[in-house]
Design brief:
With about 475 residues, the chain is α+β, with helices and mostly antiparallel strands. The chain contains 19 helices and 9 strands. It folds into 3 domains: about 5-80; about 90-210, no CATH class; about 220-460, Intergrase catalytic core (hpI Integrase, Chain A, Orthogonal Bundle), CATH 1.10.443.10. The protein is about 45% helix and about 10% strand. The strands form 3 sheets. A 4-stranded antiparallel beta sheet has the order 1-2-3-4, with helices on one face. It has a 3-stranded antiparallel beta sheet with strand order 5-6-7. The chain is elongated, with a radius of gyration of 32 Å. About 25% of the residues are buried.
Length: about 475
């Protein structure tokens, strides 16, 4: 049964003033006074005053109900004068979905001014989830927002360990500052929409220097030990066909990252059409290993395309074989048939149209970590990204010019200088000892500026006890 016309729901109507935008009334079946308020630009508000009257006597409780309606109208006028919304419809967390809908409109397929990537959007969603955890998932009215409580979010985040909330302090203040960027943007959104009168402030944190904030890397000796162990893991016979394929792909990716300086996300997005011969190479040895990788804007972290010189022909040959792509010798290297050129390089086993799954990446790294952490890495926090970091550090140590290195790595010269020119005692000691090996010295110093020198080729003759 539909709702009766408005007049049939109103009894004992009394207007607050001659504007006729506010009145009190009772419903036919209750003695409790209600109020109606028309709010300019926001619609209507109908709520109970909580004042109990008499179903037959309209004098009882009327003045008290009118006072409550009057106070609400004054409150609305005051909020409008401050440029704020008057209607108290939602609580603080209720606007998160609205904010994320607006943010999602800015998602682009690659980094560019004014837009964000899918990964950035995912991280923003996670940051707002942390804000909820800070409030113990208890929603709060915006008009009751406790700014002093919000102020202490950074302190809570840097100290709190809570298994129930699945939260622990991040390793760096940089992480907390990134979270605050999202949280501040959310409250800026609430202020822009007129739901709060001012933006919150937060405890100030000191950001670590770029040098101290860099990811861990492997020394040449640790790298050799790690690669040898991962190779054995990848060639293990006690596996299913899927596991064998996944392990061998991951092994090739690690070699690719350390020698081409590609980021993990860039590796994931590579298509066979991005891989091509380097026709500018003259040296016969370099021609055997060297080629070019076109990193498209949509897969680059910086949103800028670049061409990478890389000594990884063998890696792509193996990845082609693993993908089951026949070698077309009539076509230039990497000999990919025309109909396979737009296929991703790193794909799911048996499904060349699908990327390698996130779970496969994560499980594989966990297995590698279990094999290497206590044996070689010790207290270092080694990740996929560390392979890129290791490769760049190795190139710095062997004297590759900074400008050439920064262009290949897709990062600024200042960043390379601040982050990779570290020369810690560990690196210098290992490097000095490696240079005592004749084969190593000849390979590295024959042409120190070339980008087409594979770490694995240089280190293959080095005894594991070196360094």
């Amino acid at each position: 049964m539909g709702r009766p016309p408005k007049g049939l729901w109103i009894k004992d109507q009394f207007f607050l003033d001659r504007d006729e935008d506010c009145y009190v009334y009772k419903r036919p079946t209750t003695s409790v006074w209600q109020y109606y308020l028309r709010i300019k630009g926001e619609g209507e508000e109908r709520k109970s005053t909580g004042v109990k009257g008499d179903i037959d006597d309209n004098e009882i409780g009327r003045e008290q109900a009118l006072d409550i309606a009057h106070q609400r109208k004054l409150e609305v006028l005051a909020r409008h004068q401050q440029g704020l919304k008057a209607r108290r419809v939602k609580k603080m967390f209720d606007f998160i979905d609205d904010f994320l809908v607006e943010e999602q409109k800015r998602v682009a397929d690659h980094n560019k001014p004014g837009y964000i990537t899918k990964e950035t959007f995912r991280i923003k969603t996670h940051h707002l989830g942390l804000l909820k955890k800070y409030y113990q998932n208890r929603n709060t009215k915006l008009e009751d927002l406790d700014y002093s409580h919000l102020y202490n979010y950074p302190t809570w985040r840097s100290l709190t360990v809570d298994k129930k909330l699945d939260i622990k302090p991040p390793k760096t203040t940089h992480t907390i500052l990134t979270e605050l960027t999202t949280i501040k943007a959310y409250f800026s959104y609430l202020m822009l929409k007129g739901y709060i009168s001012r933006e919150p402030t937060f405890v100030k944190l000191k950001r670590e220097s770029i040098r101290n904030n860099r990811r861990d890397y492997l020394s040449p000796t640790q790298y050799s030990q790690t690669i040898n162990t991962v190779r054995a893991w990848a060639n293990s016979k006690n596996t299913t066909p899927t596991m064998e394929y996944n392990r061998k792909v991951i092994y090739q990716v690690l070699m690719l990252m350390s020698n081409s300086f590609l980021r993990k996300g860039e590796c994931k997005g590579l298509r066979w059409s991005d891989i091509r011969e380097n026709k500018n190479l003259v040296n016969t040895e370099e021609k055997k290993v060297g080629h070019l990788i076109d990193v498209r804007a949509e897969i680059s972290k910086t949103g800028q395309p670049r061409t990478v010189q890389s000594p990884t022909k063998a890696r792509f040959n193996e990845l082609r074989k693993l993908a089951g792509i026949p070698s077309d010798k009539k076509r230039p290297w990497p000999h990919i048939p025309v109909d396979k050129l737009e296929q991703l390089v790193i794909t799911k086993y048996g499904h060349p149209d699908e990327p390698l799954g996130v779970g496969t990446w994560d499980r594989s790294w966990q297995q590698i970590k279990e094999l290497c952490q206590k044996r070689y890495w010790f207290n270092k926090n080694i990740t996929y990204y560390s392979m890129r970091h290791t490769g760049i550090s190795f190139s710095v140590q062997r004297g590759v010019p900074m400008l050439q290195l920064s262009r290949n790595a897709g990062t600024g010269t200042r960043y390379v200088e601040d982050v990779y020119y570290h020369h810690e005692s560990e690196s210098k000691k290992t490097w000095d000892m490696l240079n005592q090996n004749r084969k190593f010295y000849e390979k590295v110093h024959k042409n120190p500026s070339t980008m087409n020198l594979s770490m694995d080729d240089v280190l293959e003759d080095i005894d594991e006890e070196t360094g």
